[in-house]
Amino acid sequence: MVNVGDRVLLVVGGVSIFEVLDVAGEIATVQSIDDVPGRYPFPARVSALIPADAEPGAGSTD
Known about the structure:
Order of helices and strands: EEEEE
């Protein structure tokens, strides 16, 4: 289960981290945490999201 404000990955081993903006049933609206041109919110299946803190090295800038 994900909640608004959680940071997630879209795929196992993913590099980009997304923030959950809204959750409606099985669909979450997510957006990149990086402030880059072209950043926009988009839908993703809740069941496919991976908590960013569950991946070793997720979000690491090393």
